[in-house]
Structure formats: C-alpha cells, structure tokens
Amino acid sequence: GSELLAAERGQSDIHVEKLQELLLTKDVIERRNKILDILKSEPVFDKSSNYFNGRMERFERALAREKKLQLLRRKHNWTTDELRTASEAVGEPGPYALHESMFKITIGEQGTPEQQEKFLKPATDYKIIGCYAQTELGHGSNVRGLETTATWNPEDKTFTIHSPHLTASKWWIGSLGRTANFACVMAQLYIGGKSFGPHPFIVQVRDLKTHQPLENIHVGDIGPKFGYNTMDNGFLLFNKVKVPHFNMLGRFSRIDPQTNKYVRQGSPSLIYGTLTWVRSNIVMQAGSVLARGVTIATRYCAVRRQFQDRDAPPGEKGENPVLNYTMVQIRLLPLLAATFALHFTGKGMMHMYQENQKRMNGSGKGRESETRGAGPEETQAGSDILADLHATSCGLKSLSSSIAAEGLEVCRRACGGHGYSSFSGIGSWYADYLPTVTWEGDNFMLTQQVARYLLKSARSVLSGAKPSNETTRILSDFRSRSEIGCAFDILGSDEDLVSAFAWRASFLTFEALKHRDDNKKPWNDLLVDFYRLSKAHSQYLVVRNFYDALKHGNIGREVDATTHDVLWKLFRLWALHTLEQEGSEFFASGAASRHQISLARTNAVMKLLKEIRPHAVSLVDGWGFDDWVLDSSLGRFDGKVYEDMFHRASELNPLNGVTVDPYPENEVLFKKVEPLAKSKL
Amino acid sequence: GSELLAAERGQSDIHVEKLQELLLTKDVIERRNKILDILKSEPVFDKSSNYFNGRMERFERALAREKKLQLLRRKHNWTTDELRTASEAVGEPGPYALHESMFKITIGEQGTPEQQEKFLKPATDYKIIGCYAQTELGHGSNVRGLETTATWNPEDKTFTIHSPHLTASKWWIGSLGRTANFACVMAQLYIGGKSFGPHPFIVQVRDLKTHQPLENIHVGDIGPKFGYNTMDNGFLLFNKVKVPHFNMLGRFSRIDPQTNKYVRQGSPSLIYGTLTWVRSNIVMQAGSVLARGVTIATRYCAVRRQFQDRDAPPGEKGENPVLNYTMVQIRLLPLLAATFALHFTGKGMMHMYQENQKRMNGSGKGRESETRGAGPEETQAGSDILADLHATSCGLKSLSSSIAAEGLEVCRRACGGHGYSSFSGIGSWYADYLPTVTWEGDNFMLTQQVARYLLKSARSVLSGAKPSNETTRILSDFRSRSEIGCAFDILGSDEDLVSAFAWRASFLTFEALKHRDDNKKPWNDLLVDFYRLSKAHSQYLVVRNFYDALKHGNIGREVDATTHDVLWKLFRLWALHTLEQEGSEFFASGAASRHQISLARTNAVMKLLKEIRPHAVSLVDGWGFDDWVLDSSLGRFDGKVYEDMFHRASELNPLNGVTVDPYPENEVLFKKVEPLAKSKL
Ligand SMILES: Cc1cc2nc3c(=O)[nH]c(=O)nc-3n(C[C@H](O)[C@H](O)[C@H](O)COP(=O)(O)OP(=O)(O)OC[C@H]3O[C@@H](n4cnc5c(N)ncnc54)[C@H](O)[C@@H]3O)c2cc1C
Ligand SMILES: Cc1cc2nc3c(=O)[nH]c(=O)nc-3n(C[C@H](O)[C@H](O)[C@H](O)COP(=O)(O)OP(=O)(O)OC[C@H]3O[C@@H](n4cnc5c(N)ncnc54)[C@H](O)[C@@H]3O)c2cc1C
Question: Which chain B residue has its CA at the smallest distance from A647's CA?
Fold first, then answer.
C-alpha cells in the first residue's frame, strides 16, 4: 500500500501543508499537535481496545478518559478550546459532555449573578456535575408539551417538581444516567393553577458523597443505543421534589416571592442566539466530520486494487485501484467536494453569527425565542438580519448534517466488504454522529421554520418592501425578472451557476406562497413542499458560500495556484452534481434547460471527476487527520491497510483467546478462555 | 398507546388475517406459530439481554442457540424449511450459518457421489462443521484474482494449499473464526506450473477432538463488525498444507491422477443456477426485511403524538399522531408500498427461476458461469431465458437490497430520538442486514452485468432478431415507435404507468448502446450510465411484477375488496413516487411530460397518502410479525411503547447496577457494581 499512496501523492502538486493551514489555521494545527503528543503518552487514551469492548467497559473507560482530561486541563492550564481539541482527538462522546456544554451554558446565560456564583463556580471545579434535562419520554420536539411540572408554593416559597405520568420521565438526558448529580430541568411552571410554560430549574439529583439518588428521585441510564454508548443518557422521574425559590434560573423571568407574581425581565435574545450558535457549530463541523470518512475511503480505494481494466492496452498489466472506476469516483469525489463546501459554509455561517452578535450587543435589541417548534408562520416583528440568521442556521443545520451522515455511509460502502469491519473506523464514527440529524431540531422539522421565514420574506417582497437582506434580495431579483425569465450559462460561468441555485430557490418560494396564500392549502399539506424548498434554499447557500470563499476570500494568497484551481473544480463538481441530482426542479423553474442538465451530467461532471482524481489523496491529506485520531486500518496515512487489519484481528481480538466446543450435542460452549498472547489462535 | 392502535385498527376494514395468508400462506403461518411456541419455551432463546451484551457474550449465546436449534431439529424432525423458520425467528446470524448453507450446498452440487458420501453425511450429522472460504484479504469481487494456490503434486497425488502473501489470507469467512473445523477453500489450481483458475477444495482446518488449528494453519476470527457480531467471520492462512487428490470437488473438473491432466466434465450450469437462486432469495426476502422496520415505525408513529395541528378547528384538542404529518407519511408510506412491491417481485422472480429450472432439466442444456466479475460484454451463446434470468436476478438483487437497507434507516429516523435507542429494534436489524448490499455481488458492480445483458439484447433487436423474451420485447416495442414517440396516460391508466417504466428503461438502453457502440466510449466511462440503466430496468421489473400480481394473480379471490383496492393504491403510490423521484429520466425519455410529473407529485401522490393513511396500521399488521420476533419497544402490537422502554431501561439494563465516582480527582471509576435487582438505580 505504501508505494501506491506515495505514487498518488507524487502525481499531484497540491501543497498539502498550505491547504492544511487554510482549512485549520497554523495556530490550531500547532495546538492540536501539542495536545496529541500529550494524549498519546497517556495509557488511558490508548485506543486499541475500543472496537472490542462492550458497553460497560466502554463507558468505564470513557469516564476514566474524561477524568484524565480534566486533570490534564488543570495541569496544562488548557483553555476551553484546548479542552475541546483534546476531546475531539479522543473521538468519543464522554460522560462529562453535557456538563461541560449545556449545563454550564444554560446557567451562564439564564442564571442571575447570584445563581452563577452558587452553581457555576462549583460546576467549573467539578464539585457538582450537571446535565440538561429537557426531553421527556413522551415529548422531544414539542417542548411546549413537556409534562414535568414545577408548582409554586407560596406558603414556603418553594417549587414542587413532579412527574405526573410515566411519559413525563426525562429521557435521553446526556451525562445523567450514571454521572451527574445535578440537572437543569425544564418544567412547566404553575402559579396558582395557571401555566406559564417551560422554565429551567436547577435540581440536585444525587448525593454528593454517596452518589446515590436523593429521595423521591428515580434516575438511571436509558440503555444501549445505535451509537453514543460511551455516554450515559439517562431518565429521571420526580415524586414531588421541593426546590427553593432560588433554583429557578432567573435572568429572564422570576417569581416575586412577595406578590407571588410572575415577572418577565430583560430580553432572552441571548438564548435565541445560543440556539443559533449551536446549529452554526453543527454546520461548521459537518465538513470535517464527513472528511474523516472521505479520507478513509479515498486512501483505501487508492490502495485497493480489483480487476484489470479490460479496455486497457494488452501491455498494461496489474489490477486497477478501485478509485479509478468512475462508479467509485462518482460516489466519493462529490463528497470530497462537499467537505470543502461545508467547511466554507460553516465559516460563512459563523461569520454571519458573529457579525450579528456585534450588532446586537451594539443595539441591545433582540427578539423572542422562535424555537417553540414547527408550525404555521407567526406574525412577529424583529430584525430581519436576526430572522435571516435563524432561518439560515436551521436550513443549513438540516442540510449539512444530512449530507455528512449520509455521506459517511456512502464512504463505508465504497470500501466494499472491509468497510463493514469495525477496523474501517467509519462505522462507529457514523453511528456516533447520527443523532445530529435528530437533535437540535429534527432535520425534517427544521425545514418548516425555513419555509416559514421564506414565505414571510416573499410576502414582504410582494408587498413592495425594499430588500433588507440577502434573502429578500434574491427574491426581489427573481420577481423583477418574472416577465422575462432567465438564461444562466451554468457550464460556462461560475457566477451564473450560483445564480441558477438562487433562481430555483426563489421559484420554489413563490410556488409555495401561492399554495399557501392563494390556494389556502393547509400547512400540513405543504410539508413536503416546504422540505424541498428548505433544501433548495440551503443548497443555494452552500454553493454561494463556497463560491464567495474562492472568489472573494484571500485563498488566492494562502494557497498555491494548483490548489486554488483544484478548489474551483471542486466547487463546480459540487454545484453541478447537486444541480444534476435535483434536475427536475432546476428544469421546472427554468433555471437550466434540459440540454444543459444533460450536458452537466454526461460531460461536465465526468470531466471534473477525471481532473480531480489525481489530486484526491492530496486533497484528503489536506484535512490533516492524524492516524491516531482516525483509528482506521483502511485510512492509514502509509497505506499499510492489510498489515493493520491483520494485526488487529490476530493480535488484539480477545475472541481469539477462546476455544469453543463446536458440536451441538455438547453443552459446553467455550471450553477454554485464555488471554490473547497465550492462545495459539 | 393501546387505545390509539385499537382506534387505528378500527378505522380500516382490511381483513388482516386474509392479508397475512396472502403474504405468507396459511401453511407457513401455522408452521411458524408452532415453532415460535417451541422457541419461546426454551430459556436459551430469551432475548432480554441481546441489546445489552458485548461481542463475547453475544457470540457465546449465539452458539448456544445454534446448538439448541440442532437439538430441536432432531427432536422434532424439522425439515430444512422449518429450521430456517426457526432461525429467522431467533433473528440473528449464527455460527452454523455457513455450514448449513454454502458449505453443504457446494459439496452437494460440486462434489462427486463419493465426495458427498464422505463429507456431506458427517456434515449433516454435525460431525464436521464447515464454511465457505472464497474471499481473501486482498480480493473479494474479483474471484479470478484470488492468491491462494493449490498446486498438484504428481509424485504423491496430492495438492499443496498455500497462501503466498498476507493478502492471500482468507478473510470474512463466516463460521470459520472459532466454529468450523472444515473449509471449502477456493484456490488457484496449478498443474505443472500452469494455472487453471479457482477451484474448490475441502480442507480440514481444526482438530476434531481438541478443536485446535492443525499444523501450518493459521486461523482466527477477524474481529468486530458494524453488525453480524453473533457470527465468527474468520481468516485463514496456509503454510503449504497437503490435501489428497480426493479433496478437490470433482463433479465438473478433476485431475486424472494417471496422466496428471486437467479434465473438464459435465456442465456447471447448476452452479450458475445456484448463484441466481441465492440472489433471487435476497429479492424474495427484501420485502419482509423492510417490513420489519416499516411495522415498527408505522406503529410507533401512530402512537407518538407531538404538536397540535395548528390549522385544526379550535374545538379539536390533543396532539397529533406524527403519522398524520405528510412529511412523515411521505417517508413511511412509500416504503410500506415497497414491502408489497418487493414481495410480489420476489415471488415473480422465484417463479421465473423455477420455470427455468424445469426447462433446463428438460433440455439438459446450460451454460458457463457468467459470474466472473464485472467487465465488458462477453460474446457467449446460450439460452436467452437463462441470460434474462441471470440479469434479472442481478439487477433486482441490487435494487431490492438497497431499497430495504436504506429504507430501514429511513424508518429508524422517522421515529425521532427513540429510533436511536437499541430498544427500537431497527438499528441492530439494519446493521445485520447491511452486508447484503455488498455480498453476492456488490450492488454497484452487479449493475454492469445487467447493462451488459441489456446492450446485448439491444444489439440483437437492432440486428432485426425476433424478440425471444420479455426484455427484447420491450426493446423492440420501443424501437418500433421510435418515429412516433409515446403518450402514456400515467395518472389515468395503470397499464400505461407500467409502460412508461418500460419506455424509460428502453430509452436508456439505446442511449447507452449509442455511447458504447457508436461513440466507442471506454467501458469505465460508462459505469455511471450503466448503474442508472440497471436501476431503471429493475424499477420497471418491480412495477411490472406488482402490477401483474394484482391484475393477473388470484388476489381478487384471496382477499376482500377493500384490501384489493388498497393494494392497487399501494401499487400506484410506489410507481408514481418512484417516477417522481426519477422525474428527469422519465421526462428526458419522453415517457412522461413535465406537467404529468408535476401532477404526480403535487396531486396524485399526496392524495394516495391520504387514502392509504387510515389503513397503515392494518397493512403492517398484515405482515404478521410476532412481538417476540420484532423485539422492539416501539413496534409492539399493543402500542405500550413507553412502558416497555421504561421497563427495559430500568429493569434490564446492567449499567444501572453500577455506582460511579464522578469526580475527576478520584481514580475510582465504578465504586460499586451490583446485580440489577439489588441496586436502587
Ligand atoms: C443521543 C441523543 C442524545 C440526546 N441528548 C439530550 C440531552 O442531553 N438533553 C435533552 O433534553 N434531550 C436530549 N436528546 C433528545 C433530543 O433532543 C430529541 O430526541 C429530539 O429533539 C427529537 O425529538 P423527539 O425524539 O421527540 O422526536 P419526535 O418529535 O417524536 O419526532 C418523531 C417523528 O415525528 C416527526 N414530527 C414530529 N413533529 C412533527 C411536525 N410538527 N411536523 C412534521 N413532522 C413531525 C419527526 O420528524 C420525526 O420523524 C438526545 C437525543 C439523542 C438521540
Ligand atoms: C459480513 C460479511 C460476511 C461475508 N461472508 C463471506 C463468506 O462466508 N465467504 C466468503 O468467501 N466471503 C464472504 N464475504 C466477503 C464478500 O463476499 C465480499 O466482501 C464481497 O464480495 C465484496 O468484495 P470486496 O470486499 O472485495 O469489495 P471490492 O471488490 O474490494 O470493492 C471495493 C469497492 O470497489 C468497487 N469496485 C470493485 N471493482 C469494481 C469494478 N470493476 N468496477 C467498478 N467498481 C468496482 C466496489 O463497488 C466497492 O465500492 C463476507 C463479507 C461480509 C461483509
């Protein structure tokens, strides 16, 4: 394998180091390398038994790793970013994850200064360990439907937290199953019999010494999952548990203990911002999540040789690397392009987010949370930029996590039989990533929010309002040409290619609007249209961001000419491949002709595959994954695929220490169980 | 949950029992019930720890179950069909699987009567336990590239079996890792330095008493996989191991020990038939494989309620079962339709296979194996029916296993967060099924064989030959109308709908032929076109088989009028949904107009969803899965989803017996580990 990969690297003059710096930045690379050295020298992070261990051992080991990370953090004075880099390198969800993220974030954002003092400080010191308990057995997406109650007791100025039904049990709560002793619980606030909707309460659930559940609290782990088994997602039932007035997070609303009145204060725009931030992060990560699978599959398919090319001249012998087959290329290379497309989109999204934060902090303005779940449009005022940001983050979260998740499985399958082995390193990565399509807004449901926003924008355009942001601008452009149509040179001009995506998205927006406003179709009847609309709009955003990064960014200065050129080809491949896949819509909207779409497929895409092929291995090298991080026989940098597979199977596999009795009539199953080194196999 | 499912069942007048008999037949249902009673009464088949166990325990338990099945088989005198029914109900791949299938089948087919006497008899009695060792670390699809050698030694009339490189190691061999003591090994036959290609040899690999590997044999388990972990897939290396002349399976070729000459004898058409039979079986099973996921998701989505319908009149309160959302329906109901489409296609395929066997046995004719891997067309004579059967089985294997595998994941996601729990029962089923898209011909590569056949058929049509089978008939029809085009009333006539599929497939066939024969495009440049062509042709076959079953079968007599009517709707849903998904091709070929395609989506499909919706639960009930077989909290017949989730998490989950020490500075991880019943959680 080594010579094959060396040859691959030899045939491309992409400057890999520069590409790595473009994608990751020099600082981050240095930070990562420094941290990797530390991790690799600690035995607890040794990965060699990961693929063999069952749930109990995996969880135990994950807890050990989390503890060690905290000790290292103290020792090396790691920043939050450094800790995150370390966690990512370890590469498994750990039992402290929700403590580090949602528990602390929620207190930080929704707690008063006194509450932060009381809870955040010990949390940071790991004197208390928390989690974020929102979802219940019966309700996830529909937060307003939560059944856990928090009833205000005017007599003693406390709240009673209670789970009235089995379905009110908190469920899926990360870090709660075995680890946490505190929870931030979302519960329906009741004052004097009146409901005020879900609010956050800090509740202790286990004893700080014995770690046993407190009285009237039923808490435990919800059991094994498709992935994420190093995490203890938990359940939690309350039997009338009292917490003091102090424990309702009070930055944005509180109960006046004197009057027993509900008081709303400040503007929770920050919460709203966090949700957007979390989604933007998912977009940001999708590129590198996918890049792991693409790296593994691309390297392996360059090493894997199967069949001779029967059209090859008789002189040429030897088998073909399967990466030479166009049917392998059409599966992998567009995904390789997607890793870059998503990366630049994530960066664009983050930039947009930060711009907005600046603006908001300046003006002090914000708006109500719009995350109450999908449903028909609400009439709400508020900054158009903020609404745009929200919709963009919803649409892109949905699209990018779907591309990444589904792409990983495509990568796994492209590896043929060996892709099915745990040692491929793709399967477990995929399984752990999968919840991303469901949490932080189910990918299907989020599309309703995008559609709602687009409909609102389209109405504003129809009403003659001046375009106030990117979305209304493209909708206006479309409207202004409704009498004359369009003519995009999609194969000749990159700018036109981007415009064709904008055109199709705008077309679908006005179509949906017609159904909703003119034909008065019920919301539910339009969900499928909304899904398509959101997808179309988000695909436009991805193509636009990729284009802008190449055109207007300073990439030209950061990488060499070849790399820049290949990046443009990846842009075209991604855009044209997507366009061809969604051909019907482009055609129906008039954004591309039948002939253009057919040329895109049979000519342009096939030609791009050929042109990109020699650079494939160097391009994945550009993502700079360390072998230790990938933990994959197939994706090894040195191409020693078979040696590594064999080593793991024969030297590390505990099942090979077992001698079975194979005969049905004998009751004995394992007649001998030896540690591996001892057994003869 | 119970009332909700009862209400669902109440709103449909489908006669579920009749539907079950249509799908499974009365005999099979009886047989299954009888066997289920036996299995449920045996503690070893208790499934309650399946989702919790790690690889070692799962494998051990699987071996115990396999042994018990054999004992039960002897006790109850089970037929092969009955044993298979029992295995299916157990629902996990077991360590005897390859012994029961490929090992015995290969000896039965390719062995001489003497070899059958010597190997098949003890195999049937489980005195020896075998496996089928073809794939190697370095070669899977390309069987001709196998590196294991079998060199004929004229001196002592033996073969030397040898693995010259690491990549020659047998790999992925089911039942070999720990269980088998014999292997049917495919090795390159060498006589006097000349290669004769891969041949099957029976080789003993472990001692029958000690079960230790024999000398010069390195054998073991290849390690954990994405699924299939109850099976011990193995590796196997030979260091010049001698086997007697007798051990080369000699029905179709042998070495004359006197002259040392290679002798071909008889016609291996049967082998060829078996491969077709194996693929036909995959087609046959795909429907019910998918039906398991669809059953679980449909029942759960009828029980799961989330959000109120905001367009609902103010009087109507309560949350909506998520199955009412069109975005859930569009994911699940076409898959529900697919279960039936695949079922009838599998039946059609099997019928075709049996007809052909009859014919072949009559005429005694056959042909060479065509399974040497993908590549350009070979010019080979032979019966057109046989070639058609072969191509059909390749194309349908590829299409149907992809639909089933990908459909299962769609079902899992449709269940939202709970779909990710192991207790959903979909994840493990999906993971175990996944290899089906890779083995028995990788789904992508098989499409080359289909295309090759279609090109050959098209050439014969162009040459003016009379249509000799279904495929050449539709190609001729298409050609004969090439000057006048077509006009299919796809929304008004079911027959026209089928014809539109035939038209599009024929169009793509002649397009591909033009590229290959007129433009002389290299084979490799056309692989993507071939893939699309194969898919189009196979989609036609599915639609055709579904149509024929409803139109010409005696379904009308077997089920009531409502059921028959709903089945027609499922046919339309499947066909129109597929047509819409592939809209570009239907349009490009002229098989449907843009307006028709758009109507199919916005009108016809949406209307069909509405009409089928009330019958959804009854339709999945029609598949008749027993709760014990499904082993799913979400798919329970009685709808007690939440109770079951809670029970499994809190009563069965061993992690809840563990008390952790959560603090980073303490090295202790598990401070107490108790059996579950003891722990307080
Ligand atoms: C691994 C994992 C970790 C998690 N960690 C946490 C945690 O730490 N804390 C926490 O609070 N939660 C956590 N969750 C829960 C997670 O946030 C929810 O599962 C998620 O919000 C989805 O909600 P649900 O499961 O209720 O899906 P549901 O809403 O029940 O969705 C079921 C199906 O119905 C569809 N659907 C529902 N409503 C509509 C509608 N209005 N229109 C159209 N379709 C609809 C969905 O698309 C989906 O297909 C976690 C989940 C997982 C899988
Ligand atoms: C769970 C499991 C159980 C198995 N059990 C057995 C067993 O009992 N006995 C046994 O002998 N084998 C067994 N196998 C092996 C199985 O048959 C092979 O994995 C399968 O045939 C695929 O071959 P491969 O892995 O070599 O894929 P490869 O041929 O290496 O394919 C790799 C990639 O290259 C592509 N590709 C390869 N050639 C071409 C081409 N000419 N044109 C275009 N694309 C191409 C493929 O589409 C794929 O994407 C098992 C496999 C699995 C996963």
Answer: B222
Q: Which domain holds residue A220?
A: 107-266
Domain containing residue A576: CATH number: 1.20.140.10
* Tally of domains in chain A: 4
In a domain, B667, yes or no: no
Residues of A in contact with B235 (CB under 8 A): 646, 649-650
**Residue B656, both tokens:** 């809840």
Write the residue in B211, B311, B527 that is nearest to A325 by C-beta: B527
CA–CA gap between residue B622 and residue B645 (Å, rounded): 25
B535 shares its domain with B509 = yes
Give the closest of B177, B324, B658 to A655, CB-based: B177
What is the token pair recorded at B178?
């720990």
User: Looking at the structure, do residues B378 and B453 belong to the same domain, yes or no?
Assistant: yes
- List, in sequence order, every residue forming a beta bridge with A238; answer none if it has no partner: A217
Looking at the structure, do residues A208 and A281 belong to the same domain, yes or no?
A: no
Residue A632 in domain:
no
CATH number reported for the structural domain that contains residue B133 in this entry = 2.40.110.10
The answer to whether residue B572 neighbours chain A at the CB level (below 8 Å) is no
Q: How many angstroms separate the alpha carbon of residue B430 from the centre of ligand 2?
A: 19
Same domain for A318 and A398, yes or no, is yes
Chain B touched by A214 (CB under 8 Å): no
- A417:B439 CB<8 A: yes
Closest residue CA from atom 29 of ligand 1: A141
Q: Which two tokens stand for residue B399?
A: 């299409």
Domain assignment present for residue A228? The answer is yes
Would the CB atoms of B660 and A63 count as touching at under 8 Å? yes
Residues in chain A closer than 8 A to B86 (CB atoms): none
* Residues in contact with ligand 1 (CB, 6 Å cut-off): A 98, 132-135, 139-141, 172-174, 228, 233, 374, 435, 438-439, 442, 444-445, 527; B 304, 306-307, 322, 325, 327-328, 414, 416-418, 420
Task: State the Cα–Cα distance between residues B547 and B341, nearest whole angstrom.
Answer: 9
A60-94, pLDDT tens digit by residue? 999 999 999 999 999 999 999 999 999 999 999 99
How far is residue B164's CA from residue B81's CA, in Å, rounded to a whole number?
41
Same domain assignment for residues B155 and B304? no
Q: Judging by beta carbons within 10 Å of its beta carbon (0-12, 13-18, 19+), is residue B380 exposed, middle or buried?
A: exposed
| A235: chain B residues, CB-CB within 8 Å | 646, 649-650
* Euclidean distance between CA atoms B261 and B49, whole angstroms: 57
Is B225's CB within 8 Å of A166's CB? no
Boundary (domain end) residue, out of B228, B248, B266: B266
Structure tokens given for A582: 């969604």
**Residue B246 and residue B319 in one domain:** no
Name every residue whose Cβ is closer than 8 Å to that of residue A310 and which is 6 or more positions away in sequence: B375, B376, B523
Average pLDDT over residues A177-195: 98
- Residue A71 region by backbone torsions, left for phi larger than 0, else alpha for psi between -120 and 50, else beta: alpha
Judge if B259 and B367 occupy the same domain. Answer: no
Chain B CB contacts of A225 under 8 Å are 420-422, 427
CB within 8 Å: B416 and A129: no
**Torsion, CA A369, CA A372, CA A373, CA A377, rounded to 10:** -70
- Whether residues B484 and B565 share a domain: the answer is yes
* End-to-end Cα distance, chain A: 26
Binned average pLDDT, 10 residues per bin, chain B of 681 residues: 95 96 96 97 97 97 98 97 96 97 95 97 98 97 96 98 98 98 98 96 98 98 98 98 98 95 82 83 97 98 89 74 98 98 96 84 47 37 73 97 98 98 98 97 97 97 93 97 95 98 98 97 97 98 98 89 97 98 95 96 96 98 98 98 97 96 97 77 52
Q: Is residue A101 part of a domain?
A: no
Structure tokens belonging to residue A571? 């842009």
Q: Are strands A182-191 and A170-173 parallel, antiparallel or unpaired?
A: unpaired
Domain stops at, among B574, B601, B621: B621
